[in-house]
Structure formats: C-alpha cells, structure tokens
Amino acid sequence: MENAPTQASSLASGLQISEEVEQRFNLVKSVGEQCTHDDELRDLLAKKAAPVCYDGFEPSGRMHIAQGLMKIMSVNKLTSAGCRVKIWIADWFAYMNNKLGGDLKKIRVVGEYFKEIFQAAGMNCENVEFLWSSEEINARGDEYWPLVMDIACRNSLAKIKRCMPIMGHSETEELSAAHILYVCMQCADTLFLEADICQLGMDQETVNLLARDYCDDIKRGNKPVILSHHMLRGLQQGQTKMTKSDPSSAIFMEDEEAEVNVKIKKAYCPPGIVEGNPCVEYVRYIILPWFNEFTVERDEKYGGTKTYKSFKDIVTDYESNVLHPKDLKDALSKALNKILQPVRDHFKTNSRAKNLLKQVKGYKITRTALSKEMEALSVNTPNPASSAAGLQLSEEVENKYNIVRSIGEECIQEDELKNLLAKKPTPICYDGFEPSGRMHIAQGVMKVTNVNKLTTAGCQVKIWIADWFAQLNNKLGGDLERIKVVGEYFKEIWQAGGMNTDKVSFLWASDEINGRGGKYWPLVMDIARRNNLRRILRCGQIMGRSETEVLSAAQILYPCMQCADIFLLEADICQLGMDQRKVNMLAREYCDDIKRKNKPIILSHHMLPGLQQGQEKMSKSNPSSAIFMEDEEADVNEKISKAYCPARIVEGNPCLEYVKYLVLPRFNEFTVGTDGGNKTFESFEDIAAEYESGALAPEDLKKALVKALNIMLQPVRDHFKTNERAKNLLEQVKAFRVTR
Fold first, then answer.
1. Same domain (yes/no): 293, 211
2. Phi, psi torsion values for 233, nearest 5 degrees
3. Final residue of a structural domain among 585, 605, 625
4. Which are the contacts of 739, defined by CB distance < 8 A and separation ≥ 6?
5. 340-377: per-residue pLDDT in tens?
C-alpha cells in the first residue's frame, strides 16, 4: 500500500487492503468532518462486509435541512459502502431533555414525521432500520440497564457533565438529574446496538469518545469508530448551528419555495468572506455533495452562467469578488428548492404525511424549565385534605396505629397514618437493604422487631433486596454474584432470628425491575427530569456519601431509582432508617409535583450508633464498632465489655441505646442483676433515671445487655452451625472483603 497508516493498527499486521475496500473507506470517511481513527476504519471495512453504523435523533419539532439533507446523504453513502444503518429514534431522550414539554405522544408524532421526510427526500432505506429507543430498551432491558449502570459507576460526575453539549447545554448551567442519566444512556446505546461506527454530529463527539473510554475500561477490544459530521450554521451572523426555536435561523424540509427564497435572501452572506458564511457552507455541505456541481446563472455582463465542480473554485471566485453574494444566493435558493420539492409534494398529496405535518406545526417548541426546585427537606405541614381530624378511630385501629407508630423515631404525617390504617386493612409497607457484607444487629434484630410489629398490625411488608443498588454503590467491588450471596445470607438470618414471614415478600430489585422495566424506567426518568442536580446530590447520605465527595454518575442515578422503588412497589408506608429520610421526602415531593394525592407515609427508625465513642452508626468495615448476628457468645461479651459506656451519662451511650432500641422492644422488659439482687425495668425512662443517678452501674448494665443480646442471637448461631446452606453462605460472606 502506498498510503500506509501512520498509527499502529491491525493493518500493520500485513493485512492487504483491496482497491474495493479503499473505495469504501473513502466513501465512508467523506461523511465525517473528523474520524477516530482512520486506521481502525480501514481495518473494519477490510474485515467486515456489512458493519453496523449507529445514527440517531431526538424527535423535537420540525426538521431543518441540517437534520434532513445531511443525514440522507450520509446514510446513502454508508449504505452504498455496505453498511447497515440503525437510526435510533430517541423518544425517551427527548422526554428526558424536556422536548415538547416531555409529552411522549407528541414526541412520537414528530418521530413518525421525521421518517416520512427521510423517505420522501430520497433516503435509501434498504439497509436502514428505524428503531424507537423506548421499544428497543423495553424489549431488552435486562441487557441495557445493567450497561447504563456500569457506565454510571465507572465515570465521575464531573466527566459526565463535560458531555452536556450533546443536549445543547453547558456544564455550568442548572442541570437536572436526567441530564446525567441521558449521557450514560447515550453512551450505552452505542454498545447496545452493537455499533461498529458512530455517525453523529461534532456536538456529540464527547459522548462517543466516552463510549471508547468505556471500552478501554472494560478491556473490550472492538471500539466503535467515531465519524463526526459537520454542524451546519444558522442563517444569521454568529449562529453556530440551526435552531428550531428561531425559524429565521433555519430552512425546514417542507418550507415553501417562497419561504426558502426569503430566508436565503435575508441570510448573512458578507461579500468576499468565506469563513463563517452560512450560504457558502450550504453550497459546500449540501449542494455540491447532492448534485456534484453548483451552477450559478447570471447575465453575461456579470460573468455569465458558470458551473462549479469543486468547492475550491467557488472559494477562489467568492474571495476575489468574481462571485457576488446575490448570485450565490439565487443559485443556492434554486438548488435547495429543487431538492426540497419532492418533500413538499409528498406532504401535500399523502394524507398521513399531511396530518403529521399539521400536528407538528401546531406544537410549540419548548424545553421546559425544571418544574420546581423542591428545596425544602423539612417535614411538610399537615394536609387538611388528608387529616384524620374528625375521623373516628376504632379501638382496633388505634391499637394498630400505636404498634406501627412505635417503629419510627419520626413519622410523616401521623394523621395520614391514622387515616390509612382506618381505610385500608392491609397497607403495603416498603423496607429494604443493600446486601453488602455481614449483618450487624441494627440490620438484624431491629428489622425483625419492626417487621413483626408491622405484620401484627396487618401490614403487608415488601423487603427490597437492593442488589443493583449495592452494585451502583460499588459494594463488594460491584460484584453482583457476591451481592446475591449476601442477600441470601440476610434472608437466612432474619428467618432464623424470628421474623414472621407470613405477610413478607422478599423481592430482588434486579428481578422486579427487569420484569416491570416498562413501568419502572419511565418513572425513574420522570423523577430525574423533575429534580435539579443539587436536590439529588443532597440525597447522597442515603448511600453513606457526603455532597462534597468525588462522586460517580451512579450517585445521581441511585436516589432517582430508590424514589421510583416506592411507586413501583405501590407502597403506602416507607419504613427505613433516618439516613434514608431525604430520598423518602423526595418521593412525597414528587407526588406534589405530579398532583398525586396518596403520598407514602414516611416512618423513619432510629440509627443505632457504633460501640465506640463518637461512632454515629455501626460500620461493617470496622468490626469493633458492630455486633454481628452470628457472633459467638464470647465475641459479644468482649465487644460489649470494651464498648463506650460512661457512668451516669445517657446521651451518646451506645449500651443504653441498645437496651432502648433492641432489648426492650423484643422482651418488653430488661432485667439487671446487682449486689442487691435482680431488678426488672419495663420502661426506658426508669432505666435512664437509675443510670443517671448512679444507682445502675455501667458494669451491671453491660452484663445484663450481654445476656439479653446472646439470648436473641443464639437461634441464629444454632442455625448457622446446623444448616448446611446457611453454613456455606456464612463462609462465603466472611471471605468477602467489605469494599467500596
């Protein structure tokens, strides 16, 4: 070969490139203003007779010639070179980007209108597939969404924000959470569609390169070749691209001949200047590629009719003022009208096309602002409409209310809870956990106690085994197989620890979401598009993160998904820890935003502190801070003996907290042995008073606490020693390193 690649590629292996392949390469390469990388493209065309090319668009209003004519020419060149073109009709993406107010029905109409235009204007559709993103993703959600989540996990929020130009945004403007999800999804599209070539505009280059980076990260050999086409300028000075919101900047594919003439006549076209001149650009990128020539008709006294075969000759004449702007414009108008006439004819004679165009012209081109910022995280004031004031509660309902209410350190709102229990015999309660290592007593004993109270009060409890969430949060290194082992181990413990599972469903997040993805993911997207990034970032605490940490894109996706879980499970009550309060409040605010009356009641339980001074909660990564559900009796004794337990001080004393939140709720009493004999307490207030007065010594409190804890944990120990499945699960879990 005369023109050997300058960069190392598989071509260097000695693969001979035929004349046919070189011709195909030149044809495909001509589509792009930039190609990453030429050598990879040659290699691809030499090895694959029908490579897959990915192109796409957001259906968002009338089609201008940059979207229409340039795409038609690009697609026809690609199919002529043997490519199979998949055109991604990005309806869900237009929805997330709030195009047409996020109205999916309107977005669908616009997508159909686009297809009509492509076919009427001369697109060769023989090797072209039009694929609706919503349909394809729903059909293969089990492949698509894990890919999106993995991309989100592997990329920092800062890196994803640098891709904002793909949606016409900058990374410094106010963004919604949907903008982050959008980038991760578009990156996934390339791999999901098994694309060999990405043929999109220069404004999409950052996300296409993100897909190549992702391939490097997962050690995927076949990276997509990026072919980025030129972005046509708007008609007015300084407009770097056409915009639908300003009709004077664009020529639309069904514009009448007179409209085209007027728009070109008013277009910016400075004499003698080529750079930044939209009229000259249209000749270069539309007319010459379409007709292979450009004919200027004029009087003999102005130089006569001249046909140009190359853009270089046009530039020479224009810069030397041999070619006048008026003559250029007249010839450009004539050529454009010739190209557009078949489209006009189609939309006048075809009733379906005519109806589509009428609808599309009636749509206002919008990108709506974020609905409301929903900044307030405080408890909402009572809603008079849902108040239980005046509602007569039976003794049975009052008892049920007292049982359910006793679970939460905080309840939002108590009136709503009373109302719910009075009207619904079996309310649905949502609880959940991330499988992420050994289970400590806060997750074990407290959950068993709370679930048993809820089922006693008639609730149906859905326990969400958040395997995908653990993966998003990079628990156990994001290894889903290990996460599933831990989930099974948790179930074993709860059942061995005395959980009444008659009215309990254990639901794996991955299974439920895959099974009902058509309902779930639009809900996630809607939550994401209605909330700004700052609001979602403040939910980072639910994952044990702070807003100031270096976050991955997954930390934005996670709260939107957890909020959606509540609605997917049709939960009446959310029973989670105080650390999950912000995302539960997000769910209530979402109900306000979509005018949904039945908001989930938030029942937030206390967070048990770690055993050492200043530890706000138990941590699996620090075994000395936690008692695990299968700890041996000697382990429990040693950990409690070393626990922080200052004499006469109740506040911040973990041993007293364990009595209050674990022992008393389980046994309804707490017996302490002292030199003066045994003393049994039935209320925490009495225990606190005795302890503050010095009558109850730390060593006596600890001995009684150890005894009570070991009584609770003994059935779990026995189960994990005698049950082979449980024993095997525990061995695996203990071997897993707790990582984030």
1. no
2. -70, 160
3. 605
4. 474, 475, 476, 477
5. 999 999 999 999 999 999 999 998 765 544 444 333 33
